[in-house]
Amino acid sequence: FAFTKIEEIYISSSVSKICEGAFACCSNLKKVEIPENSKLQTIEANAFSGTNISEIYFPDSLIELKEGWCINMNNLKRINLSPSNDHFIFKEDKYLIGKSDNKSDEFDILLFVNRDVEEFCIPTNIKIISSYAFAYSKIKEIFIPANISKIGEGAFYNCYNLTKVEFPENSNIQIIEKKTFFSSKIIEICIPASVLKICKKAFYCCSNLIKVKIPNDSKLQIIERNAFQCSKIEEIYIPNDSKLQIIEIGAFTGSNIKNIFIPSSVSKICNSAFSGCSNLKKVEIPENSILQTIEANAFSGTNISEI
Length: 307
Known about the structure:
25 strands, 23% strand
């Protein structure tokens, strides 16, 4: 039904799965009716992406919400959950939690937060923030506690009011997934020392992001393509003893960086890594650097006078 103009849909009780992209870009779709006797077990990624659904019913048969199930469900404000469903809990009429192991009694995944929520405190039992859990919500700041081990793709995607993100020093986060803070309004960020990789477009188009700090004991190895593209970064501190190995394609394209120190551990600066950084005047590479490759356009459009 993708790209059709349907406004309402009744899901037959015999349907066990709503597959990826089934109703994607049905911008007029506002109502989905799922009966109480439904056999629905799975909703896949992008199933209702780009629709205008504000409310949805989950029957007791539902056991699985795939990563990205709520992508671009910008108006979803309520989930009506069958009281007989023991796989999910919709708490305080504003957030949905589930299990990372269906055989367990522990509800440890934050799956969804109402898009009209402005304030939120992550419960202590939560270990995983699922993909697009907060996307398009109105939250203004968030503290990611140490009990969180994973933040899924696009978890804070297009959170236009989000200005502050904090991690504790003992954070366990290892990967900042792609599009995690895409188009948020955060002003500065301290990357936890535990992080090994900042993925593609993690901070893409964070137009208010001025400062990025990477601590001295950082385990960071890779900054993937377009990770900080189109940000306003003026200052980024990467320690000399950093384990950073690769700065990928377009990682800092179009940012406002003035100076950059390339740690000795970096072996490759990829295509357009710093292209369009018109304020960049100084690049420092230490004598003990193991840098082997600088790719095409790595420093295109900068104002470097010496390297």
